[in-house]
């Protein structure tokens, strides 16, 4: 088992280049199987979630040609099997995007039902509501969700909950339905727009993605395309917070600054300097930052996927802050770990009440999920002394070469085997 070992205290300085958006890539890879031709996807992040989804896509018979770490060619013309088994769903919930993609393409699909996960119960009732509205029959039997339709017919669908997953799943199925679908109260995240743009590049007719009403005119066939995925908003946000937490100066390159506005605004509010360029942002913090209130909301609100990293920063700030988590009910699991590093955070229901401290002290902590794991790593880099972070497989789900990028910024961090005392001692000797 691997862990990160970190010696904190160095401000992070320099430049970092952000990779393709994981959450856009998950939708795009699933949608790619809907064409009966070669689809080329560029700027693919080389992270575990993506690699598992590619295995699931191969397991249903599509041809997957991994041209390089960041490029793949997928040919969906060879698809044979329409069942996605639990092995994949267990590892990555977003395998359920294959439900919408296969339903749209073949009129039929079965996927093992995703369970809850580390951050909450995560129902999929809105996905089901959408498929049924398009005329599909949906059944749940022995832990598997199956859907089929002789013909999908466009409809007017109103989502009761703003859901990224349901918006993408319904958009994929409706893109191949007969007639027009109007999807109201749709999610507006940047990756919704990216999946819609990708589907359009294969010949779909989708308008309004990025607003809360998406209009989809079904088409009968998709064609080949080459598509480059947008930059990852959350990876970028994590490095912005890392600059602020370590009192550093980082130029975060290959980003769309508009997607980062909610994060930039909070950083500016608490006293950091944020400079925006065409495709980069620079974050500078040379002093201890101030406190604020944050409530997570669907885009363009403050992203729940940035909540742990930001709460960690506020735990180091001057004064008292409050963070309200309104999307997932169980997203404060990291608080106990951060408190072991000296943070003073109390959680009541979906609210974290934070009393800022001067500095974290290094400790042995464990990543409870992907984003919280990243927050703990940055806490270690900002803190005093040695921190080890266990369960880093969560972090590898969504951050490509996290330790390499942090090292290039001057962070003293190494990925080591928990059992490998020699490497651990070598690191400790090197960092003093
Ligand atoms: C996606 C992101 C995840 C991010 C989340 C919110 C991917 C692969 N994952 O997750 O990183 O944290 O958006 O921005 O893109 N809900 C229902 N019924 C449903 C669907 C959702 O009640 O059928 C609820 C959920 O429990 C949650 C809220 O809606 O409270 C938002 O969930 P959703 O937007 O669907 O999140 P995901 O697509 O799972």
How would you describe the overall organization of this protein?
The two termini are 25 Å apart. The protein has 15 helices and 24 strands. A hairpin with a 2-residue loop joins strand 8 (137-141) and strand 9 (144-148). With 432 residues, the chain is α/β, with parallel strands linked by helices. The chain is 33% helix and 25% strand. The protein is globular, with a radius of gyration of 22 Å. Bound molecules: uridine-diphosphate-N-acetylglucosamine. Uridine-diphosphate-N-acetylglucosamine (UD1) binds at residues 23, 26, 94, 120, 122-127, 161, 163-166, 187, 304-305, 327-328. Uridine-diphosphate-N-acetylglucosamine (UD1) binds next to helix 1, helix 5 and helix 6.
List keywords for this structure.
432 residues, binds uridine-diphosphate-N-acetylglucosamine, four-stranded mixed beta sheet, 15 helices, alpha/beta
The whole-number mean of residue pLDDT values reads: 95
Largest sheet: 4 strands, mixed
List ligands, each type once. Answer: uridine-diphosphate-N-acetylglucosamine
Low-confidence stretches: none
Determine the strand fraction and express it as a percent band: 25-35%
Number of strands: 24
**Class by SSE composition:** alpha/beta
Measured distance between first and last alpha carbons: 25 Å
Count of separate DSSP helical elements: 15
> How would you sum up the global shape?
globular
Q: What's the assembly state of these chains?
A: single chain
Radius of gyration: 22 Å
Strand adjacency order, main sheet: 22-23-1-24
Helix content: 25-40%
